[in-house]
Design brief:
The chain is mainly beta and 124 residues long. The protein contains no helices and 12 strands. Helix content is 0%, strand content 60%. A hairpin with a 5-residue loop joins strand 6 and strand 7.
């Protein structure tokens, strides 16, 4: 059984900061890319930031210079630090991970997983 557990969402004033975290657990052999996406009401889910196992990062233009994504490979955890938050950052934030799983009798298989989502609200 594989789980992606997210935490750190909440209400913050414009200009404030939040640090989310997403921890992967289960029969994981290794993790490829991890990242965060978000979905605002009435809008499609969109990329926020991703980070590869080697530490290469990719950011949406809307968050460049404000958000920083990092990961702790030993803990299978990814952390987006979100600074200078704006009301338009309000959304449900979802963790995503490409996991290499140990499948008994078969070997290692790659599967993509989503977290349950955590609400981030930026409002005064």
């Amino acid at each position: 059984q594989v789980h992606l557990v997210e935490s750190g969402g909440g209400l913050v004033q414009p200009g404030g900061s939040l640090r989310l975290s997403c921890a992967a657990s289960g029969n994981i052999f290794s993790i490829n890319a991890m990242g965060w996406y978000r979905q605002a009401p009435g809008k499609e889910r969109e990329l926020v930031a991703t980070i590869t196992s080697g530490g290469s990062t990719n950011y949406a233009d809307s968050v460049k210079g404000r958000f920083t994504i990092s990961r702790d490979n030993a803990k299978n955890t990814v952390y987006p630090l979100m600074n200078y938050l704006k009301p338009e950052d309000t959304a449900v934030y979802y963790c995503n991970a490409d996991l290499n799983l140990i499948v008994v009798g078969i070997g290692v298989r790659t599967r993509n997983y989503w977290g349950q989502g955590t609400q981030v609200t930026v409002s005064s």
